[in-house]
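Why do we care about 3D structure at all? Because function follows from shape, and shape follows, mostly, from sequence. That is the central idea of this module. The next example makes it concrete: a single protein chain, its amino acid sequence, and then its structure expressed as tokens.
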Amino acid sequence: MKKAILGTHAMLLALMGTAQIGQTEWSLVDPDRNDRNVPCAVWYPAPLEDTYPALVLAHGFVMGPYDYEGLAGALAAQGYVVITLGTELGLAPDHADFGLDLAFVAHTVQANTTGDILDGAFNGRIAIAGHSMGGGASWLAASADPPVDAFLVFAPAETSPSAIAAGTTITAPAMVVSGTEDAVTPPATQHWPIHDAAVNSACRAFVSLQDGGHCGFADPGTLCDIGEFGFQGLSPDAQLAAAVDVSVAWLDAFLKDDPNALGLLEGIAETSPVINLELSCPLGVTEAAPFQSALTAVRDASRLTIGHSHPYALEVTLWSITGQCIAQHSIPPGELWDPCLPPGLYLATSGQTAPLRFTAP
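And the structure:
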């Protein structure tokens, strides 16, 4: 099935504006698990004019792939292909298989051979995401070593096997989005332990939505609402809008290498009455150098080079925004080093010299 859609409720229309969104379905088969069928619903920017990053999304308990049209459509309007899983729909879901489904779909996206209109449409940048049970399954997916640039989970739930125990396998940047009034998966016993378990993540963020609930990340009227009957907190439209704002900034930082995205995320939190952000990145944008650095970044029309003002050679190390060592080089006085960096935000350090933060190219 292939169709062009503009969403089905007012929130989606408001978030998308005039953007056209395409929608299709996949029926994938995993040959490594007895030909397990993994159906998916897929939203994408239309018309397809480029290659795109992807977000693979796992649904919550007794929910399904079409319960996230608002979230999926809003992210597709921002240049992402969103793939929602259609497995583990029943009353006795297998959390381990759900996590493996996420990893399998991520590998399918990486192969870029979907056999439909999206064949060749992916650029290889992938995030794994989930809501509630699907959020916990996202942590489980990490143990299968999927090709993933970032994790993004909404009101994640503990699973069996334990998502908390699996947290040490998370190495990519990981963000948890939580509603403070979530009584289904309470932040203190579910969201925070799942966040804190990702001790090896290159960059972690915890977003608290004041008065937010459990079901506001999905479309209104799903079975999730039954478990939150009578909820009087943040409206579904307001909660989804806040979730989309922080999600786009997070994904832009790690799937589009936008050097300003983490700063934008902080700005969103500072100006929003409902968003509280705790950001822990080793070389985050908030860590300003205490004094003028002797290191310099010199740009011309096509490249960026690194130099310094010292009268002797300096051993310079380049770091990504997530704290990964990119390269090391000894720069003699008066010379420049071209590290051939892709677009992004970086930090240059050398001994006791103040660090230099810069964007490339």
